[in-house]
Amino acid sequence: HPDAMYKMGLLMIYAKRSQESISEGESFIRESANNGNLNAQYELALIYLRGSESFSLDGEEALRWLIKAADKGHVLAINKLGYLYSVGTSDKKVKINLEEAIRYWEIAAKAGYPESQYNLAMLYLDKAVELWEKSSSKGFKKSKYMLNLMKSTNK
Questions:
Q1: CA 82 to CA 68: how far, in whole Å?
Q2: What is the DSSP track for the chain?
Q3: Side-chain half-sphere of 100: how many Cα atoms within 13 Å?
Q4: Cβ pair 62, 90 in contact under 8 A
Q5: Dihedrals φ, ψ of 97, to 5°?
Q6: CA-based angle 108:40:118, to the nearest 5?
Q7: Tens digit of each residue's pLDDT, the chain (155 residues)
Q8: Cα dihedral angle (55, 60, 61, 65), rounded to 10 degrees?
Q9: What gap in Å lies between CA 62 and CA 48, rounded to an integer?
Q10: Radius of gyration from C-alpha coordinates of the chain
């Protein structure tokens, strides 16, 4: 059963009894993911993102598993896709793509996921500051006011 395999895999990985146990746990996770368990697909993507003795770091493979889980509505996978596209992967197989990051974070934010809501707010705030600085430099007083307000609250 995929759910039981997923849970056994987690137990073997995070109990960290031995490298052999971790490798076997990762195999259980992969088998469960292949059998359609969304949590296992998400976990397998994380394994590929960090790499291990059994699984080489592989951003493309991580992306593939995240998309599989996200397409079925797994909100953690949707949020992680936003993150992945916001920073790229260390193996350079997934490039930074802020449009995609925003697209995935918006989906997760609409589903009520707080981390995605926060990430979007930070992106929008950065853009707001940039626009306030531009309009303030042209003498627009409301923008100067907002910049001063932000500076005074950051002290």
A1: 14
A2: -HHHHHHHHHHHHHH---HHHHHHHHHHHHHHHHTT-HHHHHHHHHHHHH--SSS---HHHHHHHHHHHHHTT-HHHHHHHHHHHHH--TTSSS---HHHHHHHHHHHHHTT-HHHHHHHHHHHHHHHHHHHHHHHHTT-HHHHHHHHHHHHHT-
A3: 15
A4: no
A5: -150, 90
A6: 20
A7: 989 999 999 999 888 678 888 899 999 999 999 999 999 999 999 999 999 888 899 999 999 999 999 999 999 999 999 999 999 999 999 999 999 999 999 999 999 999 999 999 998 998 999 999 999 999 999 999 999 998 888 76
A8: 140
A9: 5
A10: 20
The size of the chain, in residues, is 155
- The residue type found at 4 is A
Residue identified by tokens 């889980």 is: 69
